[in-house]
Structure formats: C-alpha cells, structure tokens
Specification:
UDP-n-acetylglucosamine1-carboxyvinyl-transferase, Chain, 14 helices, 24 strands, alpha/beta, 430 residues, binds uridine-diphosphate-N-acetylglucosamine, 2 domains
C-alpha cells in the first residue's frame, strides 16, 4: 500500500503550475460523447478519477486516444451501449454525468449509482427531478439509475438546492432536448461555466451560465470541438494555503485569480501577503497568522472543497477560529487525525472551533477523503518531525503529481510502499 512520508518544518518556496480542473474535466469528458465527431480535450489533469471515467467511456464503445499526458481525443460515434456498469465507475462521483450526456444523445441511459468521497449522504434527487421535468422516466434498480425518454423536452426547472452536479447534468441533457429549458437556482461555480462554454463550442445554445438562471435552447446535433479545461481552483487554493501553513512563499501559476477571490480574501484576513498577476497569485506566509471565521457556501462563497485546508492553517494561527460547514454534513472526519498531531479542535455539529497552537507534531495518520487527505499532507509539511499518511489513493484521485509539485517547492515528501523505503527516506533527510 502506498503511503506518503513527510519530514515537516520546511517552509515551501518557489513556483508551482496548476493543472486542469478535475471537476470541470469530468463533466467535459461526458459532454464529449454527445457527438459522433471527434472531440479534443486539452489541459486534462492526469488523475485517477479522470482515468476511471475515460475507461468507462471506452467501455461503452467510444474511441479514446491519449494524445499526450494531458490531451485526449474522444470519438463517440462508435458507442454501442448506454449501460455503464464498469466496476470502478460507482467509486467516482461524476459517473452521474454520463446519465445526462447519454440521455441527451440517445434518450436512454443506465449508470451505476455514484459513490465518491464519504463526506455526507449526497442525494441525487435534484438530478432526477430535472430529468423527469424533461419527460424522462427515472428509476433506481439493482444499484443502477435507469432513465429513458420517448420525448426529451425542455422545461422550466427550479432547483430546490444549489447543486453543481444537478446543474451540469440537466444542462447536458437539455443541450440536445427539444425546445427551451430554463434552469433556476443554478450553481454558479467556474466549472459550470466551463462546461457550458465547452458545450457551446460543440454547437449548443446555452446562456447565463455563471448566474443563477441558465437558459438552454435545445439543438438537434452537436459537433466536434477542441477545448482546453480551466485551471483547478481547488488545487490552486491548496497550494496557497500550504504557503500560509508552512510560512512559505509560493507563486501559484496558471490560475484565474478571479476564481480564487474567496480564498485570497481569507488568506489576507489571517495575515498573509498576496500579489495578484494576470494568471498567477503569489502567497507569502507570515511568522504569525491570526484567527478568523468562515462558512462554506456555493460559489462565489468560500468553497467546501477548501474547508480542510483552511482548518489546518487556522490550527496553527493565533486565537480561536470558527469554521462552519454548510454544504456537506460529514466533512470534519479528519479533525481527529489533526488533533493527534497536536491541534486543538472541537467539532460541534457542523462547526469546528479551533484554538490555535504554536506547532503540530508528526504522527501516523489516515487520509479519509480527497481534500482532507491533501490538507493532512499540508499539516505534515508544517509539523515538527515525521508524518506518515495512509490511504493516499484518495489524494491521487484529484491531485496531479502532488508529491512532485511539493518537492519542487522544497518539501521533504516521498511516496513509499514499504517500511524499508520509509527508513531510506528518514536516513536521507535526517
Ligand atoms: C461537486 C464537486 C465536489 C464539491 C461539491 C460542492 C464534482 C465531481 N464534485 O459535488 O467536489 O464538494 O460540488 O461544491 O464536481 N444535493 C441534494 N440533492 C441533489 C444534489 C445535491 O440535496 O440532487 C445537496 C448535497 O447533498 C449538498 C449540496 O446539495 O449538500 C451541494 O452538492 P453538489 O453541488 O451537488 O455537489 P456534487 O455535485 O456532488
């Protein structure tokens, strides 16, 4: 089993290039099979979730050609099945985007119920509500979601909760439905906009993405495109907080600073210095950071996927901070691990009360999910002594080349598979 071993205490310094946004790319890959022409997708992050989805797409008959590590060509003209029962697909959340994409194109889809990180119950009622409003039948049987429409038509759909997944899924199906769809209370995340832009480049007619009302005029056919995925806001934010937590100085490159405003605002509040450029952000940590309060919210609020990273940083900041999680109910599981490293955090319901400590100390800990896993790596980098992190498979789902990028910033981190390799690392860095 792969683990990370880290010797902490070195401030991270230097430059890091941010990869394409995983969550945008997952939906864009699904959109790519909505035409029988060849779609080229660039700036695709080479991470586990993406590779699983590509295998699933191949599994239903599409031709997938990896042009390079970050570029893929997909031809959906040879799709022979609308049933996606690939054994790994249910492990990734975004498998559900194949429902919207296949329903739109073939009026029928069967996809294994999605899994993903265990951060709450994660219902999909809003996706189902959207499909039904467009005339589809939806039923759940034997772990599969099955949907079929004799006529798929536009409708006026009001989302009861702001959901990234449901917004994108309905947008995918509506792109090829008959007539107009108006989607109210839509999610406004940058990746919703990216998927709309990609679909429009394939000939779709989608307006308003990035606001809470999206208008989709269904078209009969989509065509080929070449599209480059936006930079990953969450990967960027993780490195920005890593600069703060390790008292370092990192230039985070290939980003859209506008997408990072909620993160930047919090870093400024706790005492970091920020320099913004056209496509880069520099974060300079401080010897002493201060407490703050934050509540996770849909975009443009502070992202839930950046919650564990700010908690790690506030665990090392002066005073008492309060972090409220309003999106997922089970997202503080990693706090127990952080407390084992010397943090002083109490969780009450959906709130973490953090009394800042002056240092953390290394321990052997588990990564409970993707973002918390990355945050625990940050904690290890800031902590005194050695930290070993198990279950790093979660981290590999969403961070491309994580340890390489960290090493380039001066981190003492190694991926190891045995006690012997861990010992070798300890000798090297001691
Ligand atoms: C996506 C991201 C995830 C991120 C989340 C919120 C992907 C693959 N994942 O997840 O990293 O943390 O957005 O930014 O892009 N909800 C319902 N009914 C539904 C759908 C959602 O009640 O049908 C609720 C959820 O339980 C949650 C909230 O709505 O409380 C937001 O969830 P949603 O935006 O849908 O998250 P995901 O798309 O699953």
């Amino acid at each position: 089993m792969e683990q990370y071993i880290i010797k902490g205490g070195t401030p991270l310094r230097g430059e890091v290039d941010i990869s394409g946004a995983k969550n945008a790319a997952l939906a864009i890959l699904a959109a790519a099979i909505m035409t029988d022409e060849t779609v080229t997708i660039d700036n695709l992050p080479d991470v586990r979730d993406i590779n699983v989805l590509l295998q699933a797409i191949e599994g239903i008959g599409a031709v997938v050609v990896r042009e390079s590590r970050n570029c893929v060509k997909i031809n959906g003209g040879t799709i022979r099945s609308v049933t996606v029962d690939y054994e790994y697909i249910r492990k990734i959340r975004a498998s559900y985007y194949l429902l919207g994409a296949l329903l739109g194109r073939f009026r029928e889809a069967e996809v294994a119920l999605p899994g993903g990180c265990d951060i709450g119950t994660r219902p999909i009622d809003q996706h189902i509500k959207g499909f039904k409003a467009m005339g589809a039948n939806v039923k759940i049987e034997h772990g599969m979601i099955k949907t079929k429409a004799d006529r798929l038509h536009g409708n006026h759909i009001y989302m009861d909760v702001v959901s990234v997944g449901a917004t994108i899924n309905v947008m995918l199906a509506a792109a090829l439905a008959e007539g107009n769809t108006i989607l109210e209370n839509a999610a406004k995340e940058p990746h919703v906009v990216d998927v709309a832009n990609m679909l429009n480049s394939m000939g779709a007619n989608i307006k308003g993405a990035g606001t809470d009302v999206i208008r989709i005029k269904g078209v009969a056919k989509l065509h080929k495109t070449e599209y480059s995925v936006i930079p990953d806001q969450i990967e960027a934010g993780t490195f920005m907080f890593a600069a703060a937590a390790t008292k370092g100085d990192i230039l985070v490159k290939n980003v859209i600073p506008k997408h990072l405003e909620a993160i930047t605002a919090k870093l400024l509040e706790i005492g970091c210095t920020i320099e913004e450029y056209d496509d880069a952000v520099r974060v300079i940590g401080a010897d002493e950071l201060y407490c703050t309060q934050v509540k996770t919210l849909p975009y443009p609020g502070y992202p839930t996927d950046m919650q564990p990273q700010i908690v790690v940083t506030l665990a090392l900041s002066k005073g008492t901070s309060i972090v409220t999680e309003s999106i997922f109910e089970n997202r503080f599981k990693y706090v127990a691990e952080l407390n084992r490293m010397g943090a002083n955090i109490k969780v009450e319901g959906n709130t973490a009360i953090i009394d800042g400590v002056s240092e953390l100390t290394g321990a052997e800990i588990n990564a409970p999910d993707l973002r918390a896993g990355a945050a625990l790596v940050m904690a290890g980098l800031a902590a005194k002594g050695f930290t070993i992190i198990d279950d790093i498979v979660y981290i590999q789902r969403g961070y491309e080349n994580f340890e390489e990028k960290l090493k380039n910033l001066g981190a003492n981190i190694e991926k190891v598979t045995s006690e012997k390799e861990a010992m070798k690392f300890k000798m090297k860095v001691s």
